[in-house]
Amino acid sequence: MSYYVQGILILAMYNAIAVVGLSIFTGFTGLMSLGHAAFIAIGAYTAAICTKLYGISFIPALLLGGLMAGLVSLVIGIPTLRAKLRSDYFTIATLGFGEAIRVLLENLPITQGARGLPGLYPHTTFPVVLTVFVIVVFVCKNFVFSRYGRMAIAVREDFVAAEMAGINLFNIRLRSLFFSAVCAGIAGGFQAHYLTYIQPSMFTGVQSTLLTASVVAGGMGSLTGPIIAALVFAAIPEVLRVASMWRLVAYGAILVAIMVFRPQGIFGYKEFTFKGAWHALKHLYEKLSGKKAAGQGGTKA
Amino acid sequence: MTAAMEIKNLTKHFGGIVAVEDLTFDIKKGEIMGIIGPNGAGKTTVFNLITGVYKPTIGRVIFEGEDITGLNPDVIVRKGIARTFQNIRLFKHLSALDNVVTALDLRYPMYNLFEAIALNLPYVPGKVKRGEKALRDKAMYFLEMVGIADKAQVRADALPYGLQRKLEIARALALEPTLLLLDEPAAGMNPEESMELARLIKQIQMKLNLTVFLIEHHMDLVMELCDHLFVVNFGRKLAEGSPVEIQADPAVLKAYLGEGYKHAKS
Amino acid sequence: MQMLMQTLVTGLAVGGIYALMAVGYSLIFSILNFSNFAYGGIIMLGSYMGFYSLTLLKVPFAAALIISMLGAALLSFLNERIAYSSLRKRHAPSLYFMISAMGTSIFLENMVYATIGSDYNAYPAIFKQSSVSIFGSTIGKLDLFAIIFSLIAIYIMNYFIQHTRTGIAIRAASYDSEVSQINGVNLSAVIGLVFVLAGLLAGVSGVFLGMKYMAYPTMGWITNKAYISAVIGGLGSLPGAVTGGLILGVLESLVSVYVSSLLRDVFSFTFLIVLLLVMPSGLFGKYLEEKV
Q: Which residues in chain B are closer than 8 Å to C290, comparing Cβ atoms?
């Protein structure tokens, strides 16, 4: 595999790690965050400071970055999720949080301000990213298909009914948030040691929105969908070399279009299984050859 | 006969609007109690106050001797109260079976988070897979009880309306409550369907030894099922008594039943 | 003491613009019960329209203001029709509205980036940098004009909502959209109208922001201040939005002067979060409960 293709895959995979983590929070628990770039930033900076200033080796630094992001998520999550804020208040709070973190990063001495931290060692290699990616997807899959995933989905579907079915909203939401923050933090660590430098300007509200866009476009309630969307969104700019602003124009329009025409995204509420793919192809074939296709209900678990 | 639930001076104001005002009544253990009244009289608000969705402005809710006023809904459910909703609130994208399994988790948590994410390998049997199977089997039991076992794999929002209502009941039963609150369980049903539902409710109540508290507009069902009735109008108590007494109460007839109501329970 | 007075006055000046944005934002919130994250984009476009009216078309200031008001109103209306109306008809969950709003915001912001460019555009100096003395503090003529105009605009808006038939229809719809429909209110028309009104306010805000600072593609993010102002005053309340805007302006000014101007935005956001925890309904918020 050429370095070029490897590079795209590395980028795509660590992006996908952040996205799949966020999909647990947004796609499965139903809360929209516009500040997750802040968790990526925290992971990136923590890992970078560990390797650059303290000579800690990469994997521990990466994990520390994830952990740090997770801890900060508890700091913001405990007060905001406990208070049972309406969903848009919560989203506004995440927006505020994201911006506040970015401003802090621009002003703390240890993060060297707006200049950022250059000169990081490129620890992010294909095998490492691939391994972590597989582990993260495995853990996410287990989470989603377990009783915890069910709780999260119930909360997303109807939190009033979920509460009335004995589910503690705060617990599951906080767990989802922590989980998504850790994933974002790990992705940040990878990003820092792939680009070999980081700056606060890399972690803006737009980045946060794009993460959410990948989750939505891929399909809420699915893991496969957002992973594919993340891979596609990361690969496209490389492949097409289109100016980045037009890419963003397209993303914005795509988000609106998805909500208006196909809110379930590509894979909404379904996962890729071989049986499912076979059925989907059969369905498509039947439709194309004019036979009446019977309605099917997709089921989970 | 002990009281399963005591409601004392229950009052709820929303800004300037008085939803319920100074309601006091008891629900006896093992009985089927009904609350009736014109639309907007505050019946669902009473349910919401009991189940912790709203906190009362004034008043107390005592369940089996314990003051549960203002507790969070999930805590109240744990204590043994379950409900259905006036506007059906199923987990739409989940199958009927999964709707019930989700509720079973309360009483039967089969494994913890670490076991779920770290110890569950594909194609390898283990605690998680065994736990999931046990839950599915148990859920089938509740689906059978309400008669929709054959629809277990159907997505909840694909079910016909009447079966959705039954599914909500199955989900509530899976929480193994001692007090079951049903909010207009027969809404939208024709007379045959609602009689069938009444029989089902009676059957379940006897089998599981439940106390039932229900809101209904279908008078046939109310008169058939309920041991005791509480009538509200404009958030205030209008009358209380047995179905026979209520049918004859002039204030109730005037406000609610209308002059032409002829059904009499003997 | 003198510095305190000056700080307060400066704060009020900025607060006036925040108030203007917050009112437009609150207007939409109170009807549709959702946060229109695309509002910043509309304000930004209003600002650009004002800028080009003044520089390219070379019309007088009043005309430029009107052009940007009408333009923003139109865009706001289209925003609703394209991005939200089908969601509303489907009773989509609020998450979908928020995503659609964010999508619109990104689209508008980057459309400007890609077509016009990322330059910061300075408005021609209408008020010629001169200032006026009030209570011994100086306030720029521009700021004075902005705050007076804001208060007048808000007063007119409030009058419209409280005392005209259409205004009453809007308020009825905001309390209970279904019941008001039964009573003959054309919901789609009312909602469209609300967005138009919010758009008018957005146009004014855009022009004033452009004059005070500059016009640039990412200026939409300043609507974060509008959210905070609206939350302080209570989401859904128009007088609250005004009060909130003024309070926020003054608080920010105090923090800038007495603590650190760099931490001003951190303060605002922290304040927001604390507010949401301690007093989520704000000062005058409507009592909003989930219908069960």
A: 53
Position B9, amino acid: N
Chains that touch C (3 or more CB pairs under 8 A): A, B
pLDDT at position A108 over 70: yes
The answer to whether the CB atoms of A103 and C262 lie below 8 A apart is yes
Question: A254 CB near a chain C CB, below 8 Å?
Answer: yes
Is pLDDT of A211 > 50?
yes
Is the pLDDT reported for residue C251 higher than 60?
Answer: yes
Write down all domains in chain A, each with its CATH number in brackets.
Answer: 3-282 (1.10.3470)
Domain boundaries, given as residue ranges, for chain C: 2-278
Q: Which residues of B touch C286 (CB under 8 A)?
A: 15
Same fold, B1-80+177-266 and B91-176: yes
Nearest C-alpha neighbor of A178 from the set A36, A15, A61: A36
Q: pLDDT class for C71, splitting at 50, 70, 90?
A: very high
Looking at mean pLDDT, say which of A118-122, A200-204, B90-94, C210-214 comes out highest. B90-94
Of all residues in chain A, the one with the smallest CA distance to B99 is A154
Question: For A115-129, A164-178, B160-174, which range has the lowest pLDDT when averaged over its residues?
Answer: A115-129
The CATH superfamily assigned to B91-176 is: P-loop containing nucleotide triphosphate hydrolases (3.40.50.300)
ipTM: 0.87
CATH number at B1-80+177-266: 3.40.50.300
Partner C contacted by A92 (CB < 8 A): yes
Question: Which residues of chain B make contact with C292, given a CB cutoff of 8 A?
Answer: 44, 47-48, 53, 85-86
Choose the closest CB to C277 out of A83, A96, A255.
Answer: A83
**What is the DSSP code string of chain B?**
--EEEEEEEEEEEETTEEEEEEEEEEEETT-EEEEE-STTSSHHHHHHHHTTSS--SEEEEEETTEE-TT--HHHHHHHTEEE--SS----TTSBHHHHHHHHHTTT-----HHHHHHS--TT---HHHHHHHHHHHHHHHHHHHHT-GGGTTSBGGGS-HHHHHHHHHHHHHHT--SEEEEESTTTT--HHHHHHHHHHHHHHHHHHT-EEEEE---HHHHHHH-SEEEEEETTEEEEEE-HHHHHH-HHHIIIII-TT------
Domain boundaries, chain B: 1-80+177-266, 91-176
Q: Which CATH architecture has domain C2-278?
A: Orthogonal Bundle (1.10)
pLDDT in tens, C89-117: 887 777 788 889 989 998 998 898 888 87
Give me the percent of chain C exceeding a pLDDT of 90: 14
Mutate to test the interface with A, among B54, B84, B102 (most CBs of A within 10 A): B102
Please give the mean pLDDT across all residues of chain B: 88
Check CB contact under 8 Å for C292 and B53: yes
Cβ–Cβ below 8 Å for B102 and A151:
yes
Q: Which residue of C has its CA nearest to B44?
A: C292
From residue C42, alpha-carbon distances to A2, A77, C37 in Å are 45, 31, 10
- Residue B221 clears pLDDT 70, i.e. is over it: yes
Q: Which residues of C touch B47 (CB under 8 A)?
A: 292
pLDDT tens digit sequence for B157-210: 899 998 999 999 999 999 999 999 999 999 888 888 888 899 999 999 999 999
Q: Report chain A residues whose CB lies below 8 A from the CB of B92.
A: 157-158
**For residue C189, pLDDT beyond 80:** yes
> Which chains does B contact via 3+ CB–CB distances below 8 A?
A, C
With CA atoms as reference, report the closest residue to C93 among A180, A26, A297. A26
Q: Which of residues 199-228 of A touch B (CB under 8 A)?
A: 221
A155 touches chain B (CB under 8 A): no
Look at residue A99 and tell me whether its pLDDT is greater than 90: no
Q: How confident is the model at residue B139 (pLDDT cuts 50, 70, 90)?
A: very high
